[in-house]
Amino acid sequence: MNKKKVAIIGGGQVAEKVHVSYYQSRDDIDLVAVVGRNHERVEEFAERNGIPRFYTDAEAMYEEEKPDMVSICTPNKYHYENTMQALSYGCDVLCEKPPAILAEDAKKMKEKAEENNRILAYNFHHRFADDVQVLKDKVTEGILGDVYFIKVQAMRRCGIPGWGTFTDKTIQGGGPLIDLGVHMLDAALYVLGYPKVEKVTAKMFQKIGNKKSTGMFGEWDPNKFEVEDSLFGFIELEGGRLLQLETSFALNIKEQSIMNVEFCGDQAGATLFPAQIYTDEGGELLSLFHREKADPDRHPKSLEAFVDRCLGKETMIADAKEGYMIQQLIEALYHSAEKGESVSYE
Ligand SMILES: NC(=O)c1ccc[n+]([C@@H]2O[C@H](COP(=O)([O-])OP(=O)(O)OC[C@H]3O[C@@H](n4cnc5c(N)ncnc54)[C@H](O)[C@@H]3O)[C@@H](O)[C@H]2O)c1
């Protein structure tokens, strides 16, 4: 059998924990190479992970390896240029989230994938949890009735990443909204069938990351903390629905971390992780559906969907169109928070 070849651009922590381990678990594809910026570090990465070849020049990698599929695992700023390059070399692409920093770039990525007839997927892995699939079906069946309020939470009490470039605004494009909020927004919008956004209002803060220097994900330099540490927003969706967003890297809340979505309909309500549906009967909570634990296997399921799609199966992926839509929403939320005014969509 002629195995499809896959390469990874950006040998950092998500590449190692998620992409390498999944690709190496399959015997119908070959992980052939990794590209990094620093010679020593990428060499070490390749050795540690048993990847046959490494490069510091992506073009040389494409010319020599001719991969069929590529994972883009660089910091956010470089998603755009690396995805465009991979698509122009005829590869199918799985790009880490967020799609890009600018909506305009996510649009060009989508257009390039269409022009070249290639698959472009984003690793919004939370939507691959069984919980999300179950709830999407139940919402579509109408068990919740008219879902008119949605609460999206992607919050950490003190979880500023101590590695990488997550506090650098130029390289990441922002803080918890573009890094964490984007995940739960995707899960919520996916359940709702990616409805049209009508109006966005947001406010953001930088109150803790520029003062403290240590938390659950290690240490950072408060003098180089350039991003928001919390952002809150209201997103008005078509059909009169309201979505409330709360996202933080650092905020004085009780829980260490909350990643969840709540859907409130006129018949019943639901939480996503784990999927549970409930209603009220005479003032008492009545459970209509109850999963004990949320599905932990979201990353492998996301990668599996991408690889299987590349191999010709009709799997669900977080596609380039949805990637563009969510990037527009992220941009509108930041715009609103920066300008102190609501942003209306046409
Ligand atoms: N889906 C998820 O849950 C999830 C989890 C973590 C990170 N991510 C995303 O993955 C990306 C990387 O995050 P990370 O935590 O692995 O960061 P990281 O800093 O650990 O890794 C990034 C790697 O990319 C390399 N790099 C930088 N610029 C490059 C370039 N132009 N070409 C090739 N390599 C380059 C860096 O040297 C580093 O090794 C980010 O976009 C992040 O949002 C997603």
- What's the CATH architecture of the largest domain? 2-Layer Sandwich
Query: What percent of residues are in strands?
Result: 25-35%
Termini Cα gap: 51 Å
Helix content: 25-40%
Indicate how many domains the architecture comprises: 2
CATH topology of the largest domain: Dihydrodipicolinate Reductase, domain 2
Broad CATH class of the largest domain: Alpha Beta
Bound molecules: nicotinamide-adenine-dinucleotide
How many strand units?
17
Q: By helix and strand content, what is the structural category?
A: alpha/beta
Total helical segments:
10
Largest sheet: 9 strands, mixed
Spatial order of the strands in the main sheet? Answer: 16-15-14-13-7-12-11-8-17
Low-confidence stretches: none
Query: What is the N-to-C order of secondary-structure elements (H for helix, E for strand)?
Result: EHEHEHEHEHEHEHHEEEEEEEEEHHE
CATH superfamily of the largest domain: Dihydrodipicolinate Reductase, domain 2
Overall pLDDT: 97
The geometry reads as globular
Protein name: Gfo/Idh/MocA family oxidoreductase
Family: Belongs to the Gfo/Idh/MocA family.
Pfam families: GFO_IDH_MocA, GFO_IDH_MocA_C
Written overview of the protein:
By secondary structure, the chain is α/β, with parallel strands linked by helices. It folds into two domains: 4-123, 3-Layer(aba) Sandwich (Rossmann fold), CATH 3.40.50; 127-299 and 327-344, Dihydrodipicolinate Reductase, domain 2. It contains ten helices and 17 strands. α1 packs across α9 and α5 packs antiparallel against α10. The chain is globular. The mean pLDDT is 97. Bound molecules: nicotinamide-adenine-dinucleotide. The site of nicotinamide-adenine-dinucleotide (NAD) has 23 residues, from α1.
